[in-house]
Write a structure and sequence with these properties.
- The protein is α/β, with parallel strands linked by helices.
- It has a domain of 196 residues: NAD(P)-binding Rossmann-like Domain (Rossmann fold), CATH 3.40.50.
- Helices cover 41% and strands 17% of the residues.
- It has a seven-stranded parallel beta sheet, sandwiched between helices.
- Strand 2, helix 2 and strand 3 form a beta-alpha-beta unit.
- Helix 1 crosses helix 7 and helix 3 packs parallel to helix 4.
- 42% of the residues are buried.
- The structure holds NADP nicotinamide-adenine-dinucleotide phosphate.
- The site of NADP nicotinamide-adenine-dinucleotide phosphate has 27 residues, from helix 1 and helix 6.
Length: 299
């Protein structure tokens, strides 16, 4: 039995489809948000999965969810998590508890979803937590694989939701720093395919897979692309960031209720290193630009 965390999320939903295709038995842990009509529980059950309702930040819930599982796919947590305490709880504390409990339960295989750009020196707090979490997983005794996707897109593009408050600003859209950080938006289905094809693949053990899309955009190029499809004509303006503090001050004056890690995410690279690597499955050539018109229509 494989425990899937985050199986109701954008990436998790794609993972469970691939698991179902391979007929791998799995248990999905979900808080089961929403009323009975929008709940993801019936659809997960219809796909043939065991569903357990609970919050992954609760250690007792995690222990029960892991019991009887030999493998874990951790795709829980959200890019949209903005509250600093919750961000740490979801991206770091859960992982350390999950690693401890997995070891106790005798889990053998562990697939961990991190993020391209995860680094202890990243400008983004979330990327720093992702790096720390990777270190915990790599030190654990089970057979691990770390998957590092760049920002992914499917029916939606969560990174666009993070950027949205900035795109709505007038008379200019502020870009912290030079706007030259690089991102490689990738199809969520490609990321899910890499994960599920890694599961029973000996060659994937102790590997860190970088999963980026076919086009590399600088932050300025990405925002110009989104502006084009959203028909936004507001000009961009670089906000000097010789010190992160200056950008933060400008942003906090202009914006309220934005993602607390906004500047970090806009200035952190999330692109492949260019090091040789062979993924367990070839990636498609799906580009964000092809998907963007539909994503924007649904906003
Ligand atoms: N989105 C991106 O572009 C991107 C890029 C790189 C890496 N990642 C990483 O990929 C993973 C999945 O991202 P996603 O975009 O698919 O996420 P998502 O659509 O926002 O879904 C979040 C998932 O995490 C679960 N979750 C459980 N407890 C949670 C909690 N306390 N707070 C928030 N979520 C909780 C949710 O389950 P329930 O609501 O059913 O409980 C849901 O299944 C995350 O680790 C994320 O950091 C995302």
């Amino acid at each position: 039995m494989i425990l899937v965390l985050g199986g109701s999320g954008l990436l998790g939903s794609a993972i469970v489809k691939h698991l179902q295709h391979q007929r791998y038995p799995a248990r999905v842990l979900t808080r089961g948000m929403g009323d009975w009509r929008s709940s993801n529980i019936p659809s997960l059950k219809q796909l043939g999965f065991e569903v357990m309702v609970g919050d992954m930040t609760d250690s007792d819930v995690l222990a029960k969810a892991i019991s009887g599982c030999t493998g874990v796919i951790h795709a829980g947590g959200s890019l949209l998590q903005s509250d600093p305490k919750e961000m740490k709880a979801v991206h770091l504390d859960v992982v350390s508890e999950l690693a401890r409990l997995s070891e106790l339960a005798g889990v053998q295989r562990f697939l961990h979803v991190s993020c391209l750009g995860a680094s202890e020196r990243s400008a983004s707090t979330m990327m720093q937590y992702k790096w720390e979490a990777e270190e915990i997983i790599k030190a654990a005794p089970f057979y691990w694989t770390v998957i590092r996707p760049s920002y992914f897109f499917g029916d939606s593009f969560p990174f666009l939701k993070v950027l949205m408050p900035v795109l709505k600003l007038q008379p200019f859209i502020p870009i912290p720093g030079a706007g030259m950080s690089e991102v490689e938006p990738v199809s969520v289905d490609d990321v899910a395919n890499v994960i599920v094809q890694s599961l029973y693949n000996r060659g994937a053990v102790s590997k860190v897979y970088e999963v980026g899309g076919p086009v590399t955009y600088t932050m300025v190029e990405l925002i110009e692309l989104i502006k084009h499809y959203m028909k936004i004509r507001t000009p961009l303006m670089n906000v000097p960031s010789d010190s992160a503090g200056k950008s933060a001050k400008v942003f906090s004056k202009l914006l309220k209720n934005v993602h607390t890690d906004l500047i970090g995410l806009m200035t952190a690279d999330s692109a492949c290193s260019g090091d040789e690597q062979e993924l367990p499955v070839a990636l498609s050539e799906r580009t964000l630009e092809d998907a963007l018109p539909k994503i924007i229509q649904k906003l």
